[in-house]
Amino acid sequence: MSDFKGQTLSWQIVNGAIELALHRDPCNEIGSLTLEELERFATALPLLANEAHALIVHSTQKAGFSAGADLRELFQRGQQMEKGTALRGVRKFLERIHSVMNAIDAAPITTIAAVHGVTFGGGFELALVCDIMIADRMTRFCFPELRLGLIPGFGGIPRLKRDLGNAVVRDLLFTGRSFNVMKAQQVGLVSQIAAEGESLRVARATASQVGKFDKGTAAAAKAFVKPIPYEELKREIDIFCDLYSRPAVEEGLRRFVENKGPQPYLP
Q1: What is the three-class DSSP state of 214?
Q2: What is the pTM of this model?
Q3: What percent of the chain has pLDDT over 90?
Q4: Whole-angstrom Cα distance, residue 194 to residue 89?
Q5: Cα(161)–Cα(165) distance, integer angstroms
Q6: Which CATH superfamily, name and number, covers 4-258?
């Protein structure tokens, strides 16, 4: 289908570009329902790509692009299920989200992440699957997973290594610090900086520029310069699941869930 409106996201084709909009309150946390709708998008993507020359992923939420995985859901899974059952569920969730991310990563059209505000954890990882990242000047990027006893699990480490190299990965991963948009552009993460609230407009202009060129040539170039690190992605799932079974993770998730602040994912 060329358009869809779900509970957590929607898509439509506008001027030859697919626009995938995230709209789950409060900041597009990625849980089971979002995953189901992302899977629906991944299934539709091959046909959508026949009708479009680009994909723009953006958020309608004021707080930002995405705060990442739904950690409350992850904590409840561990509390409500026997440990082995919970771990199998986590592995299955990661395998499914990786499948979606890989489908977007490998799409034969140019993909653009238009980000703003909070772009953390799994939300950062979703932006990283795109070919081009455009960020408004208030955007912040962060991998906060180590404070929970985990590593990023949606493919972020292999993709960031592919795009930027290990030094930037180590800084983000080991310190848990966030990068502002100027730092992100300096290290090569962001290709364009937009004024506050203007990232979608700039992404649309970029998609229009992309549309001037032959789709087949662009797809061939993309396959050449952007290989998908499948083996490292599989290892990431194994490491995440090993860490998830440790007591430190339950305690880290508990502290997050019990945090009564309006945005507990912020540093």
Answers
A1: coil
A2: 0.95
A3: 76
A4: 39
A5: 4
A6: 2-enoyl-CoA Hydratase; Chain A, domain 1 (3.90.226.10)
